[in-house]
């Protein structure tokens, strides 16, 4: 959702407010969370991100230069459980407390219309060119569980204490720069994005599930910072229909191919996307145009060999590869 808040002031300067919210499975998994070890292998980047919120604002600053800032809202949940239990698992005197606090992560961005900035009153070779720069801090969802259980006739007061802290849905610190050129009914652009995945090693060291406590420090999981190039184009068929396409190559941030306890699998990916948008200027019920977007994305996972280690220490060589097909659609309403 995007709206202009400039009418709230007497200055007449446009101030745009944007809000994005997303949930998985139609809201049925708003607080879904998964963090586990594995002896058979698990994919690194294909976990759930059940709930995400983004809110921010932007405004024109000077001669084709606009800047904006937003915050990404993630949840840091804590749970405390105290109970008395028998050896048969029957509990009594239970006390459960759950709390979820929002954590705000910053996203900054700027856009420069080079023609309007450097030659606002005349034509020059910079007309049609735009450049954008964005920065996003790292973010993740986290859960901490503290429990204390007294087992009658076996574990007396103060009981057995268990503490687990883990993260999910990690998003690395990201810096991206891109540029595009717009012609008559078409445009083409490209970008380079740096993702600093090496910071995930420090996050895992404080994770009770992913810390690999039984593995020597020199053999634990490692991550690399990566660069992702992207190229895209759009062609306006007429005033109502447009075709879009893009291609990207994403290196795997997973540096190590042998990760006992976790056994993460991840490969380089070639990503190709195609889409079409249709804008309906007039409908029977709505006063403003309605836009429908349909898209298809193909991801080719490049072959990569891994060594999977089970809980008994036995090793198995496996090869990870495959194809991913994604279909998506959206409707945009103006009001």
Polypeptide structure, described:
A hairpin with a 2-residue loop joins β4 and β5 (65-85). This protein has a domain at 172-335: Outer membrane protein transport protein (OMPP1/FadL/TodX) (Porin). It has a 15-stranded mixed beta sheet that branches. A two-stranded parallel sheet has the order 3-14. 3% of the residues lie in helices and 60% in strands. By secondary structure, the chain is mainly β.
The rough form would be described as: globular
The CATH class of the domain at 172-335 is identified as: Mainly Beta
* β-sheet strand percentage: over 45%
Instruction: Tell me, rounded to a whole number, the average pLDDT.
Output: 88
Helical residue percent? under 10%
CATH topology of the domain at 172-335: Porin
* Rg measurement, Å: 25 Å
- Strand/helix succession: EEEEEEHEEEEEHEEEEEE
